[in-house]
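[Q] Does anyone have a clean C-alpha cell version of this?
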Amino acid sequence: MAAARRTAKGVWDRFSASDPGLLRLMAGLRTVGAILLALAVLASFGTSVNHLVAGAMTAMVATFAIQEKEVRGQAITLLLGVPVALAAISLGSLLNSRVIAGDVFFVLLIFGAVYSRRFGDRGTALGLIGFQVYFVSLFVSAEVSALPGLFLTLAVAFACSAIVRFAVVPETPERTLRRLREAFRARLAQLVAHQIALLDAGADDVDAVLDDLRRSTARLHEAALMIQGRLEEGTRDAAAAALLQRRVADAEIAAERLGVLLLNARSAERVDTLTLHLPNASAPMPPRARIAEDAGTALRRDLAALHLLVVRLVPDDRGTALPYVRNRLLGYREEKGLPKGSPALQDCFRAVGEAARAILGLRLAVDGAQDEEYDTPEAARSREEFAAEEISIAGEAAEAEEEDERTGLRRPTTRAAVQVAVGSALAIVGGEFLSTQRWYWAVLTCWVVFLNTASTGEIVVKGYRRLVGTVLGVVAGVALAGAVGNHTWIAFGLVLLCVFGMFFTAPLSYAMMSFFVTAMLGLLYTLLNTYSLDVLVLRVEETALGAACGIIAAVLVLPVRTSHRTDEELGTVLARLRDVVSAAVAQLSGGPPVDLVDLARDLDTALDDLRSSTKPLTHPIAPLRARRQTARYVVALLETCAYHARSLAATAELVPSSKSVAADARLALAGRRITHNIDLIAAHVREEESDGTIESGASIAAMLDSGRHEVLRTGSVAFRVLRHLQRLDEGIVGLARPLGVPLAAREEKAAGAAKGA
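[A] Here you go.
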C-alpha cells in the first residue's frame, strides 16, 4: 500500500509539474462542466437540437472568456456579459437575412471587440462574448421568431457557467496560488533529480541529461514567473506577497546555481553557463566519465538528501529525520563537515547547503516556524537571517502601500482593431465567393490569428499552425462523424472531450487546439444534420482564406515588422538588465537598499516577452537560417546574463541583514563598466548615435585589486559576487558581435584569435 501511494504521488507530481497550478486542467473541467450542465438543463425542457448547440457554445464562451483573477470581478463580468450576449444574438437574428447590413455590422463588431482589449480583462471578455455569440447566431441560423427560445437558452447557459465557476469547480486566487506552489515544489524536485542523473551520466548519455537539465530549469523558471503573477491576489497582504516572492526567487536561483556548479565539476575546466540555456548545445568541454568515487558518493548522497527535503516540503511532516538531514546540509554553508575534494566539488557541496537554506526559507514563508527544537547553530543562524529579512520586507511593503498608486495597464489596440477589421472585410468578401452560407469561418480564422499577437511574423506563424491543425482536424472529424452516425448524445459526449482537449492543449500547441476545434465542428454539423465531407473541406478552404486575409492585412495595414518588435523587446530587456545590475552593485557597494526582487521580476517578464517575440524568427518555417541562429544565440546570452543578474540581486538582498555578506565600495567600479557596455548596446538597438566601444579590459578581480593582497576563497560570498560580475561582463561583451556593436581593438583581436584557435 505504501509503495502504491508513493507511485501515485510520483505520477501526480509529474502531472502537477507539467501543468503548473493545474490551470489547464481546471479550465478544461470548468468549461466541460458548464456545457454539460447547460445541456442537461436544456434537455429537461425538451429543447431542440439547434438550441442545444447554441446553449453549449454560449456556455463555453461564457466560461473561457472571463480571465479575471478575483472572484468578485469574475461575477461582475459574467453579469455584464448577459445583456451583451442577448444584444448580439438579437442583432444576429435581425441581420441574418440582410447581407450588406449584416456584413457591415459584423466588421464594426469585430473592430469594437478588439478595441475593447484596451480596457483590460473585462473589456476583453465582453468583446469576446459579443463576437462569439454573434457567431453562434450565424452558426445556428438564428431567426427573429426563435429569439424568445434563444434568450432562455442563453440565460440558462450563463447561469450554468456561473454555477460551475463559483460552486462546482471554484477558482480563487488563494487556491490557484497554493497549487502553483505545489507545482513549483514538483518542478524543483524534478530539477534536483536531473542534477543527480548528471553525476551518473556517462560520456554517451551526458547530452540527453543536459537536455533534461535545461528543460527542467526552464520549467522551474516558468513556474516561478506564474507564482509571481498571482501573488498580489493570492496572499493576505503585500508583506506576505513580497516574502513569498523573495523565497521563491531564492529557491530558483539556488537550484540553478547548483546545476551550473555540477556542470563545472563534470568538466576538466569551468563550463560555460550558456550550456544551461542554449538549446541543442553540446557540453563545451569533454565531461569526465565519473566524478572521483569518494567525493562523488558523498555528493550523490547529499543531492538525494536535498531531493528528499524538496519532496517532503509539506506542513504535516514531523520527526527528527528531516531536521537532521537539513541541518547537516546547512552546515556546508559555514564549512562544517565539508567533504574533501577538488575546489569545484567543494563548490557543489556549498551550493547544496545554499539550496537547503532556500528550501528552509520557502517552508518558513509558507507554513511558518517548525522544528526549531532540533536546530543546530547553523540552522538557528539561518532562521535569524530569515527573520531579519522578513522584518525588512514588511517595512518596505508598508511604505509601498502608502506611496504607490498604480494605474491600469494601457496597451495600444487601435492598430490591431483596424487590421482585424480590414482583414475581416476581405475575409467576408472572399468567404462569400466560397460559400454564401459558411463564409463566417474565414472571418473567425482572421479574428483568431490576431488574438495575442503583436507582429506580422507572429500572425504568419499562427495562421500556419491553425491551417495545419484544421487539416488534421478535418480527417478526425470525418472519422468521428462516420462513427457517431445519428447517436445525438454520443456526439455530444465526444464534443465535450474535444472541448476539454481544446482548453488543455491551448497553452501548449495552437495547432493541437485547432485540431480539436475542427473535430468538434464536424460533430456539431452532424448534430445539426448539415454534415458532409464537402462541408469539412470547405472548412479548410475558409480557414486558409481567413489566414491569408489576416496576413495580408497585417502586412499592408499599419504593419508591425517582427524585427521592429524584437528590437523594442530587446531594448526593454537591456534596460531592465541595467536596472538590476546597477541597483545590485550599488547595494553591494554600500548604497541604500532598494527592492531588487521587483527589479529582477521585471527583467524576467521582459525576457519572457522577448522570447515570445522571437518565436517567428526561430520557427522551423522561418526561411533565414542565419537570422534564426542569431536570434537563438542572443536570447541564450541574455538568459545567461539574467541568471547572473538575479544571483547578484539575491546576494545584494542579504547585505542589510546578513552577517556573512558585507558591502565593498570597490564593486562600484566593476558595475560602472558593465552598465556602460549595456548602455552602448541599448543605444545601438534603438538606432541612436553613441560614442565609444565595448570594452571588457582586465578581469573583475584585477580591477578590484587596490593594493590589498587578499586571497579569495573559492566558495566565499566575495568570490561568488566576482564570478557573477565576470560572467555578466563576458556575456554583455558577447552580445556586441551578433548585434553589430563596435568592439575595442583589443577585443576584436582577442575574438579573432579565439575564433582561429
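[Q] Thanks! Anything notable?
[A] The chain has a mean pLDDT of 79.
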